[in-house]
Amino acid sequence: MNRQNRRAFLQNSAAAGAFVAMRGVAAANSIPEAPRRDGSHGASVVDTPRYDLLLKGGHVIDPANERDGRIDVAVSGSKIAAVEKDIPADQAAKVVDVSGLYVTPGLIDIHYHIGQGGAPLNWFAPDSPDLEVPLATASLTTSPRWQLAPLGVPADLALQSGVTTIVDAGTAGADTFLQEKEEVIDQAKVRVLAFLNIVANGMKGGLEQNVDAMDVKRCADTVLRYSDIIVGVKTAHYWPQKPLDELHPSWAAVDRAIACGEAAKVPVMFDFWPRPERPYADLILQKARPGDIHTHVFAQQFPILLPDGKINPILQQARNRGVIFDVGHGAGSFWFRNAVPAVKQGFVPDSMSTDLHTGDFTVLSMSNVISKFLNMGVSLSDLIRRATANPAYEIHRPELGTLSVGREADIAVLEELRGHFGYIDCGYAKMEGTLRIVAQMTIRGGRILYDPSGLSMVQWEKARPQYFNLPILPGSLRSDRRQLREKLKKEEACRNLSAVENFCARGVKLSPEACASVAPCLRTPLPLLPAP
Fold it and tell me: Comparing 30 with 454, which gets the higher pLDDT?
C-alpha cells in the first residue's frame, strides 16, 4: 500500500470510527428496541403490523355485502383492509375489543341542515330584514327574530350517532352554495354532500315564495360544476297556505326543481305541502320521477292512512313507480299516528334521516330515529340497510354505506340497550319502548373521531409517561432546566462528532448520511459529497 492510499485509508477509518461513536451516543439516548415476535431482541427491523386498526369480536351488519354475524374488521390507512373471522390481534397496531357491540358501515343521513343558507348575517339584530317565513318553519316558534335564524347546525354533530356522511337538504341554493362549501363542507370531518335548493339563495333568505328566484339553468349549472358534492335538487316550503295567483302557480316549485333535476340528471327531494289544487297523490303518482325522493313521509299533512285505518294504496303504487320515501323526522314532520300503523302494515320508509336543524338538534339524532323504528318492530339489520346501503343508492354513491375491502373506512360501532325508554314525536305525543340504539364509536376514513366511552383508549393508570407530567410553561424553572440539559447533550454529541465534522469540512469523501448526521452541530450546513 503506497503512502497516499495509506493516508486516505487512515482518514476514512478515523471518520468512520467517529461516526460509529456518534451513533452510539444517539443510541444511548433512544428508546430501547422492541422485542421481536419470537421474544428475542436484536438490531433487525421490527415487523410492521399488517393493519393499523382492528375491531375485534363485534357483530357486523353490512347489508350491502349481506354480512350479518360475528366478524372482525381491519383497517389500513383510510381503507377497509379485511373483513374476516378471527383476524389475529398481533397483526394490528391497535386492537379495539367491540364484543357485544354492532359494527356497521358509517351511517348516511340524507336530510340534514348546515350553514347559513339565505339567512341575513344580522338576523338577530332589530334592524334585520323582515323576511317572509314559510308556514312549515314559522309554526316552530313565535319569536320573529328566531324565524330569521339560520337552520344549520354543526356538521360534525352527526358523528355522535355513528353518521359519517350527511347530505345538506337544500339549505343553500346556487347563489349561496359556495359560501356553504367554504365555511362548512370543506372544514367538516364528516363527509358532507348536498341537495341544491331550486331557490337561488336557499332557505331563510326570503325568496322561497318567489318563482323568479327559481332559475333552472343557474341551478343545473351549479349542480354540474360541483357534481362531486351536489347529489340532487331540493324544493321546500312553497306557498303552503295563501291563495294562489298568477305570480304563484300551484306546482311552480315542483316543476322547476324537476326541470333542474332532468337537466343535471340528478334526483329531486320534495318537501311538500298538499292543497286542493295540488293533491299529494298527484305528486307521487304523476310528478315525481323514478328515483325522486319524498321526504317527511310521516308528517301530519299527508293521507298515509285511509279513514278505516288501512294504509293508503297510493304509497305502494308510487313505490312501484320507483318513487323513494324518506323519514325526514325534523321538528314538525314525524307523527306516531301515521308512522306506527303504517309500519305495522308493512310500510317502512326507504331511508332513515333526521332533518336535523336548529329547531330540533337538542332532542333528535339518527340513533334516536332508528330507535323509534326499532321499537315499532323493524329489525336492526333492516334499519341499518335503510341507513347505509339504501341512502347510498338514493344519492347515487354506491361506494358509500359498505364495509367492502378497499372502500373508505367509514364505520359505526353501535350498542343496543335494553330497558324502559320514552320517545316523542312532533305533536308532543309519546311512545314507550324497551330498546335504544346508541353510538359507541364513529370512524371516518380510518380515523377514530368519536369514542365517548374510551373503547380505543388505555386505563389511566397505564397511560404513557407523558400523561403524568405537569405542563411546562415557557420561562419556568423546569423549562429552563430542560433546555439546559438538551443543550449539554447536544454539545457532548457534537464533541464526539468533531472528527467527522473536520473530515467533511476538508472534503473527504464520506457518505451523504455521515455528513448529514453532523449538520445540526455545524454553524453552516455542509454540502453533501457523493459516496466513495
Answer: 454
